[in-house]
Amino acid sequence: MLTVLSQFDKGELLLDKKSYLDREENETNIELLKELLTNQIELFKEDGGLPSDITKTEKDVDEIIDLEMKMVKIMDADVNTDPQVYHLRDMRKLMPLVDWSQFFSAVAPFDSQNYLFSDPEILVVDPDYLNRVNELLQSTDSRIITNYVFMLFSRKWSGEMGEKYEDVEQEYNEMMYGQQRKTQRWQFCTSTAIKKMSYATAALYVKKALHKTTKKDTLEIANALKKEFRKILNTSEWIDDDTRNNALNKLDHMIRQIAYPGFILDEKRLDKYYSNLDVRCNDTFSEMVEKVTQWQTERFFEQLREVQDRFVIFNSAHVTASYTQGTNSLRKLTALTLRSFISARGCF
Q1: 64 Cα distance to chain centroid
Q2: Which pLDDT band, with edges at 50, 70 and 90, does 336 fall under?
Q3: Structural domains of the chain, with CATH
């Protein structure tokens, strides 16, 4: 079991860090992004009944890109700081530009307000990064920051804005990634459903595609791996006793996230998990996405007040097999237990 903490970390970017850090080598990527953003903003103006001004739009886009490049530089600053646990009140010192009380009052459900006002512990992944962001924002025109935030927000909804926006996106994807045609609507909707409602879609997937004994068989494989690893640790002469004992202790506490969490096949428990989500058949797809996103936000704040089961926090509809150091978990999910993912020689 574990307690969930609010985590403050570096945000997402419009373009990958490598393209910004090695601009000479990746100038084409940056120019393609500029063209995409310019085309999108011009479409926004058209839809809003605003006059086109391509020169001003290009200037605004240049400012957005320049700000993101500065963000990348402070993300990549050569400062070695480990994640640290603070209290929520400390955010006022780490990043005083933000009124954190007002922020959480706006985004958190009413039931979570008392918890947040109790000054709970939080995890700050890179404390010095927040200071650097604070300094950058103080030195940047608020107009540029506003444009940047609006652009990030609009990118989150790029799949909901209509065909002409999809056409602009496809032009970018073809030039940047070689994607020959637009993602079909059913593929986009399916992908969104899997991401937004992972347990519900995983339950459907497991019931339809997985044999009843598959999870048990895969658990036996995982147990065999742990047994062999324990044998290696106990018989390896090059490992000192302290390291051996620490490794054995870690092995004893390793989580096995195999195939799928058991509760998703219990309809009553699954219904309870989604009990506060109200999606109707006559809702548009965008309305459904908005409702699920709001529900996810509220669900996150609820989890802050609950003790969590580490064995169920994963999406079994994803295709992955891995060891995750941060959570000390061995993960092999549903799709990789299917015969089609395993060769005749038994290799993944």
Answers
A1: 23
A2: very low
A3: 2-182 (1.10.1380.10), 195-341 (no CATH)
Residue range 58-71, pLDDT digits in tens:
999 999 999 999 99
pLDDT in tens, 163-172: 899 999 999 9
Tokens linked to 92? 């006022």
314 within 8 A of 194, measured Cβ to Cβ: no
**Would you say 209 and 338 are in contact if contact means Cβ atoms under 8 Å apart?**
yes
Q: By the 8 A CB rule, do 303 and 7 touch?
A: no
User: Burial of 63 by CB count in 10 Å (0-12 exposed, 13-18 middle, 19+ buried)?
Assistant: middle
| Residue that has been written with the tokens 């990549």 in this structure | 76
Burial (CB < 10 A; 0-12, 13-18, 19+), residue 265, is middle
Beta carbons within 8 Å of 325's beta carbon, 6+ residues apart = none
Residues recorded for the chain? 348
Are the C-beta atoms of 126 and 83 separated by less than 8 Å? Answer: yes
* pLDDT attached to residue 260: 80
> Cα(22)–Cα(76) distance, rounded to whole angstroms?
12
Which amino acid, residue 88? L
Q: SS3 string of 129-192?
A: HHHHHHHHHHCCCHHHHHHHHHHHHHHHCHHHCCHHHHHHHHHHHHHHHCCCCCCCHHHHHHHH
